[in-house]
Write a structure and sequence with these properties.
The protein contains 2 helices and 10 strands. It is mostly beta strands. The chain has a single domain, classed as Porin (Beta Barrel), CATH 2.40.160.20. The strands form 2 sheets. The protein has an 8-stranded antiparallel barrel with strand order 1-2-3-6-7-8-9-10. A two-stranded antiparallel ribbon has the order 4-5. It is elongated.
Amino acid sequence: MHLQIKLFCRILMLLIPAAATAQFNVRDSSRQAFMVNVSAGFAQPAYQLKERFGKFTSLALSSGYKTKSGWMVGIQGAFQFNEKVLEKGAIAGILTKDGFLIGGDGTLYDMTYQMRSLQLDAFLFRLIPHTGHNPNSGLYAGAGFGYFDHRIRYEPEDRNAPLPQLDRDKRRGYDRLSGGWAVRPVLGYQYLGNKRLVNFFVQVEHIFARTASLRAYQFDQEGVYNVSRNDGAWLLRFGWVLPIYRKPATEYFAW
């Protein structure tokens, strides 16, 4: 998890100086722009997902295009994670009564349970005119359509523990990997500075996903865990924006 946070921070540090290099004014007119966003979200699971996981964090990277008329179209990929798993029964059959796993060396090992999730979609948003300090800023609404999955990750507290009954291949037989199509309604506010030094957004999202098991076999079920699910979450997301404005044909691109 710390590796993902470090990577997120490094990407953000790359975007900040890039956004500050071009200083032309966008105060008076709406402009076409390519946009790259890096964001973090804090989520409350909904529907059946809240029975499996607690609150989680979402790190996302998106890119898109804003038209002069205020439409924004693009793609987003997000990685979700936490260390609060509520559904731990899948490996109960190979644990001791005290919840430990007996290693190949006879030692008792404690386990950690984590959420891992991916979300990929294409989105279409619309800026609402006259709601921002310039024509490129303001309230926006829209939705994303794509894919959402989640699984339980099992790790011994001692990463070097010899656990033949739960090696990396066998963990897939307990991880409850589920995925399917998803829709993501969004309401947010975008601030693009007149001199491009400060650019950010904040938005509320609601993910609804229709998922099913993606594993051919689950050991504790002695077969396919063939269950259709309604999964989802509410998210509050904050992000940094790098806008690359398209100027008229007589001018150059500003980077």
